[in-house]
């Protein structure tokens, strides 16, 4: 009997940890693994990953528990526990009976007579088989919750790492954009420019130091969370009788670890007011007229700024659409030379993008990624993103609201975006590869 049980048990082994399956899942190719082993073996990035057995690419993201396999593992565990409980080594030395009662208070096994004695009668008792099943389910539930915390922390850590990699370049480009705007202003303002640039540099350094400290905190949290997750899994791997006796305070320690989760630094530069900038831009103001068209597909952000698209305009005359729809506005004017300025009121719109696009895109729907220079704002599950396109870059500024000014300098090959109410610079896209004709465009959704 022992040999048959051992043979059956050997068939229910995870190839990663070489132990009996814990919450088994079956992936695309048909191979099965412990869920925690599979989680811990995945790379910490959104990249393709492969089965460790056959190396086939794994397409599926969310896996359900293989219920039948889990029941088979449970049956083997129960048979093993039953065999232990009735073995000679598990007999009470006083009453010479099998110790099949588990005491929660003392975490010990007792025979029926001992468990009802005056010494232990007030304690919490129960069947060892039932206690093992309940404790293992508690472990699995805690592991599920803990893994969500691991994923949350990994997402936050990725956000922080991306911000750190781009922060110093961003601060430098912002300084250059401010200097470019001062070049067109009166000569008596160089001291004001110098003061603003110094302030920007100090603020940039302070935020960078905060980002590095936050990244270190999240990296440490990652190790602690994964360490606890591994400890919970190792507890699940123990035979039922050992798990019951060694359980201790592992659930309380896991819960305490999840009480505080570090959050990303709010990396935003203070809005920089450039005196006289809006007044000068308005010397080139255009009287714009809009055309409206519905968009068939509309995705501003996927993941952490992995991709961006505006979508394709549908055919037909402009009509009124429900608030959940997406809208594309373009303007009647086209520009192929000179300086031009216009303003767009974004109000409290959830997602929007505005700027200039190649005129051919409106008519022919050409390659979108080379067709526009835009400033956009989009709300994600974790935070909001202000970004520019060509190149696709996050802009670490407060959410722009109200009137947004767009200044197109065709000869300078640049597009500048400004917050009209604050007379502050949002950002500047330079070294643009303009086509012959550019048209102002505004896209929005989720009013």
UniProtKB/TrEMBL annotation:
Pfam families: SPRY, zf-C3HC4. It comes from the Eukaryota. Residues 87-130 form the B box-type domain. Residues 14-55 form the RING-type domain. Keywords: Metal-binding, Zinc, Zinc-finger. The keyword Ion transport does not apply. InterPro entries: B30.2/SPRY, B30.2/SPRY_sf, Butyrophylin_SPRY, ConA-like_dom_sf, SPRY_dom, TRIM/RBCC, Znf_B-box, Znf_C3HC4_RING-type. Residues 268-447 form the B30.2/SPRY domain. Belongs to the TRIM/RBCC family. This is Uncharacterized protein. It comes from Pipistrellus nathusii (Nathusius' pipistrelle).
